[in-house]
Amino acid sequence: MQRKSKGKPTLLYFVEGKSADGTVRRFSVYKKGTSITVTSFGLSSYVCHPSARTDTDIQREIALVFKVTVTGVKHLWELN
Q1: What whole-number distance in Å separates Cα of residue 40 and Cα of residue 27?
Q2: Which pTM does this prediction carry?
Q3: Span 10-55, pLDDT tens digits
Q4: 45-71 burial, b if ≥16 CB within 10 A, otherwise e?
């Protein structure tokens, strides 16, 4: 039986990527418990594989799943 984690997901950072046709796509990366979720601003979301724990692993997952080239990462402390 799985436990349901309570609470809101924590926003970690934003990722910007460029697709093959040249459009810029933005993603937000959230963490809730031990799972990491990537949400596109088109409201599609993806739960990362459990082995993806570092920033580079998560960026690689974004590149593979959403078929973009990652061009930038904005952490929350860089936004101010």
Answers
A1: 5
A2: 0.81
A3: 999 999 999 999 999 999 999 988 899 999 887 788 999 889 888 8
A4: eeebeeebeeeeebbebbeeebebebe
